[in-house]
Amino acid sequence: MKLVHMSDIHLTAPGKTIGGRDPRLNFERALTDILKCHHDAELLVITGDLSDWGDRDDYEWLKARLDRFPVPVRLCIGNHDRRAAFLSVFPDYDGPGGFAHGLQDAAAGRCLFLDTVQPETHAGRFCDVRQQWLEARLSEHPGPFLLFMHHNPMPTHLEPVDRIGLLDDAAFRNIVRRHRDRIRHIFFGHCHLPLAGSVAGVPASSLRGTNHASYPVFAEKELLSASDLPEAYGVVFVAEDYVTVHMVEFGYAGPIRIEGSPDYKAWDRETMAR
Asked: pLDDT (tens digit, 9 = 90+) per residue, 42-86?
């Protein structure tokens, strides 16, 4: 199975920019690149921060755009989103307790889409109601599972980032630990960074967003970082006994050279240009 992971698209009003970049334009560029290179993907998942300010107009524009996109799409919400405005445009995501949870079966297993948003804070929460929902979904089906969420479920050791990570991360990891033999991978966003690690023994990964990027400044203790690194999305291959995750920097504008044969015999020290 091939799927595309995208996060932190931060849609704004037409012509508005973030960090000198146009989120709508970059989202369109990402979709164009996906159709060019990965039109055979089974699913596109966007893990939150769909809108920069949680404006209904952004969700209406997003729905109209995705309705024309030939690859099936599933969404999570993030700390910049407003749940009520999102659900008013995407009512199919309205789940138990009013949270924007969801699930979808795919070739690689059952995908679970989690709502980690807490109003009036950039930090994430996974309260008792949400924990019960996840526990029930993991218990009622044999799996395997792929989990998608916005907030980072483990520490990044970047202090400003971790202050707005998933504050109930220990409780979340306890649930994952009980079912880890059937959870293949956890995908998240929020950090605007390529990250890889594990959550209670389950591999987890994140990536840069489609607009603005961060940078891991470990010495900074107070403020979040920003950089001019290229915009990106992820391409994921899931097979029975492996998961491969790529970060595709579609915003990279430099040259790409097709050179260097993988054939060992072609590597001649005397004749090969390096």
From this structure: 999 999 999 999 999 999 999 999 999 999 999 999 999 999 999
Per-residue confidence (pLDDT) for residue 259, from 0 to 100: 85
Could you give all domains of the chain from N- to C-terminal order, each with its CATH number? 2-266 (3.60.21.10)
The Cα–Cα gap between 113 and 104 comes to 8
Which distant-in-sequence residues (6+ apart) come within 8 Å of 30 by Cβ?
Answer: 6, 9, 210, 231, 233, 250
Cβ–Cβ < 8 Å for 267, 31: no
Report the C-alpha gap between 210 and 37 in whole angstroms.
16
For residue 165, the 8-state DSSP code is: S
How many Cβ atoms are within 10 Å of 265's Cβ, its own excluded?
6
- Written as six digits, the tokens of 231 are 């915009």
